[in-house]
Amino acid sequence: MKRFAIIVAGGKGVRMGTELPKQFLELDGMPVVMRSIEAFARFDAGMKIFVVLPQEHFNTWGKLCIKYHFKIPHQIVPGGDTRYDSVSHAVEMVQGEGLIAVHDGVRPLVSIDLIQRCFDVAEKMGSAVPASEIVESIRQRTNHGTKSVNRNDFFTVQTPQIFNSIVLKMAYRKAQPDNYTDDASLVDSFGIAVNIIEGERRNIKITNPVDLKVAEWILSLDKK
Ligand SMILES: Nc1ccn([C@@H]2O[C@H](COP(=O)(O)OP(=O)(O)OP(=O)(O)O)[C@@H](O)[C@H]2O)c(=O)n1
Ligand SMILES: C[C@](O)(CO)[C@H](O)COP(=O)(O)O
């Protein structure tokens, strides 16, 4: 089956608090989003890659590609106000049927093994979403405070999230923009089952400044 990757990097990175959005910050010698793109190109050099970027940073990206001699072929797509908008724009650029992997540009430590496992399962089952068991206790907000809940009933969810292109396009076209924080929630809002597979602890999302430090540390361990 044909494979496509949509790397979403159209956000502002408010929680990171840097002037330059976090996807462009350097992580061990290369901007965060370049590492994410590189992982997919290393998995399959022939796959079509769409990179969603904030329109106001198209120039920034051009300059970074020159500075870092970044040659991986990709098609740039303008981002939107929300992640939902950004993915919607890119999904409409996909031509032909196949599997679409939607990956956060700010998950630069995704492994080739995880990408491979996600595509393998999606090929057989139509979708694959990496998720991890919760390792801390969790509590839920209530009207009166909080209550403890059974962590075994929950998972944390990562990307890449892979779906058949027909299903993903239908979901993005028909869904009412809501508080969807990922692609799986949008797809399963149509009653379509989503297949969970084992995620990776190292596949962190760079959200706050400490995450960049953790990512640097993980990469330094990889070199040992
Ligand atoms: N309008 C948006 C918002 C988010 N994203 C992307 O979705 C991924 C996950 O989002 P998040 O970590 O929340 O990024 P930001 O929205 O940039 O962060 P913040 O909420 O702190 O502003 C990121 O790769 C981000 O660039 C996007 O493409 N378009
Ligand atoms: C898509 C995601 O990374 C899955 O965990 C997550 O939902 C993104 O959330 P954010 O609030 O946009 O960072």
Taking all Cα atoms into account, the compactness measure Rg is 17 Å
Mean pLDDT, all residues: 97
Which kinds of small molecule does this entry bind, naming each only once? cytidine-5'-triphosphate, the ligand C[C@](O)(CO)[C@H](O)COP(=O)(O)O
Poorly predicted regions: none
What fraction strand? 15-25%
Element-by-element helix/strand order = EEEHEHEHEHEEEEEHHEH
CATH architectural label: Alpha-Beta Complex
Tally of helical runs: 7
This entry's quaternary arrangement is single chain
How many E-type strands? 12
CATH topology: Spore Coat Polysaccharide Biosynthesis Protein SpsA, Chain A
The percent range for helix content is 25-40%
Distance between termini? 37 Å
Q: What gross morphology would you assign?
A: globular
* Number of discrete domains: 1
> Biggest sheet, open or closed, and with what strands and sense?
8 strands, mixed
Question: What structural class results from the helix and strand content?
Answer: alpha/beta
CATH class: Alpha Beta
CATH superfamily: Spore Coat Polysaccharide Biosynthesis Protein SpsA, Chain A
